[in-house]
Structure formats: C-alpha cells, structure tokens
UniProtKB/TrEMBL annotation:
Residue ranges of every copy of the Thioredoxin domain listed in the record: 21-144, 145-261, 263-392
SUPFAM superfamilies: Thioredoxin-like
Annotated signal peptide: 1-29
Keywords linked to the UniProt accession: Redox-active center, Repeat, Signal
Family of the protein in this entry: Belongs to the protein disulfide isomerase family.
This protein's record includes keyword Transcription regulation: no
Organism: Cardiocondyla obscurior
Lineage: Eukaryota, Metazoa, Ecdysozoa, Arthropoda, Hexapoda
Protein name: Thioredoxin domain-containing protein
An MF annotation (GO) of this entry: protein disulfide isomerase activity
PANTHER family xref list: PROTEIN DISULFIDE-ISOMERASE C17H9.14C-RELATED, THIOREDOXIN DOMAIN-CONTAINING PROTEIN 5
Protein's GO biological process: protein folding
Amino acid sequence: MLVLTMADLGTSKRWVVLFLFLLSQMGHSHDEEDVHTFRYTHDNFSTEVGKRNHFVMFYAPWCGHCQRLGPTWEQLAEISNESDNDIRIAKVDCTTESTLCSEQDVTGYPTLKFYKVGETKGIKFRGTRDLPTLTSFIVDQLGGSSLVEDIVSPPPEAVNGLLELTEDTFEKHVSSGHHFVKFYAPWCGHCQKLAPTWDELANSLRNDDIVSISKIDCTQHRSVCSQFDIKGYPTLLWIEDGKKIDKYTGQRTHEELKAYVSLMLGKTADESNQKNEHTDGVPHAILSLTSDSFKQGIEKGLSFVKFFAPWCGHCKRLAPTWEELGKKFFGNEFVNIVKVDCTLDVSKQLCNEQEVDGFPTLYLYRNGRKVSEYNGSRNLEDLYDFVMNHLKSHDEL
C-alpha cells in the first residue's frame, strides 16, 4: 500500500501518477504480446476444446521457462490460428485458473498438452521446446497431416560444401544420413583457428553425397547445443540419423579430419592409409562402432573391443592407453582396435547382447565371433602382447 501525507501530496503527485501508469502497463504487457494466442479460463475451456483440436500451454507468468517459450508459442499461434487449420494454439494462466490446471493434472510450468477434438484428456508434450519440434508433434498428433508444413523452415543451402544450421533447420537436416557437425562460439579462439580448416574440409567433400559437413553457432542456437550436451568449443560430433554416434578428439588438421570422415563412413581411403604412423593424432586408429555397424566392423580378422561408459573412471584412465594400442596396430589389416560407448542409445542393445555387465569390458573377436575376454593388466605392453599372442596362434594353425 502507498501512504502519503497531505504535505507530501503536492510534491509527489506526478510520481504517483507515473507509478500507477507503470503498474497498468505491467498488467497489460503480457496480454498485448499474445495477440494471436487464444486464452482460456475454467468457464470456456471445455467448450472450446470440444470444438476442434487444441495445443495448450499451461503456464505461470513468473516462470522463467514460460517466459522463454513465450515468443515461440506466439509464433506458432500466429501461423496456425490465422489460417484455416483444424488446430488452435491456446494458453491457460494457472495463477488465475488454479482449479482448471489442477483438473488437467498440471504439476509444473510450462506444461504443454494436445487435445484432440471432443476429448478432455490431453496428450503431454515432452520434447524440446523449439518451433520445428513443436510443429512435428502437432503433425504426429494429427496423423501426419501437412497442414502446418508452412511453419518448417526451408532447408539450408551449402556454401562451398559447408552448411550453417539453426534451431529451425538442425533437427530436420540431421534426422537422416551422416553428418559431421562443428558446435562453436564466434568468440572462441580455438574455433577461430579451426574455421579455415573446417571450410577446407567441407569444400573437399562438397561432391560427396554420403556425408554433410556443417556448423552451428551455440551463442545463437542454445537449445540445440544444450540437447547435445555441448560443454566446450569447438565440439565436433558425428551424427547419424539424428543420433550422436561419436565425438571427435583427434588433431584438427585437414588430413586428420578427412581421415576420420573416411573411417566413419567405412571407406578405404588410400590417401589416409598412407599417412605417417608417427602422427600424434590417431582418429583413424580407433574404430567407433554401434549396434548398426558392429557386425560389419568386426567380421574380418581380430577385433579387440573396449565396451565403456564416458563417466567411468577406469575407462577414462584406460582411454589414452587404448589410443596408443590403436596406433601400434595402425596399418595392420588383420587387427582392429575398437571402442563402443554403451551409454549411447544406438549401442545399449548391443552391449546387452554382448553381456557387458561392467566398464570397461574388453572382448576379443575373431572373424565376428567372440573368442576371449581380457582380464589382465591394462598397461600398453600387456594389452599389445595379448593381441599378438592371439594373432600368432592363428598364424600357426
């Protein structure tokens, strides 16, 4: 409450008027932003939802996540609500409609629910809150209808083979095929140093229809970078069919990067195979496999496989030794040094099938068949001798 004495009134009158004006503006600013979004209350919710399909945001004005979603939700409403669609975009303020929100089992903000026409029980949205994902969810709920195709951004165009992705184009672009993506920040010195090499890599592969080379600015498109758990710049990820397969950690020269691409595509790159064995970076020396590539990757020769989890302390300690082991067998056509990340969705089934019950687990395969589990010391010499003994015993047969 604002209390003023008679003596104060004369000098404070203009400030009181200004204060009340600002309060009135604060009270209406949120409504003025939602010019395209339908706003429902307990009195009209059931009636309106019964008329057509609805996508509803249950929110609280003070909620930070709600405030960040606001512009995207309004953009979704602008496109959908002003066209002759069978879908309406709406919102309910749970601070004023607590009974309605309780009836709809809203326990956190924002809660997004899709209501099919005539139904009072909504389907909860659980994806990332960006425009392409929201619209894809709507299309799925409507049975694959194309009524919101105009919302999805056009595909990106490559410049000398390099694609610049955004929040609107990323998900659709990487949803199928093979992708090598640079997650970066413009102010990052290492990113600036890598930039011309990354451009060169894209240009050298511009006629390769199997893989795309792209980049995304994490300062502008944070939701994508958050989705892929990007903790530092630059981060280089290999993505297949929308899923992270591997993180590149080798040297950032054009030759090393191109060799890595060849490895991940399963190509026989003569140029890469003629590289000096004494190179410091060994992205090509360790083969990263998943459920989809495992059978083919180990079908010939000896394959020494490390099943691991990135958070595992023993795995972290073994990692540099495993890379050195891969380096020792580089160029040996009869031996593959392999790693499988069991935390990846594309590898979990494989690890279960291979009876991996702890990390790291080291199995040796010959021509695709498991022949031994390694339980010895994890130093380089012992690991190397283990492989060589199996290699020699095979040669003597």
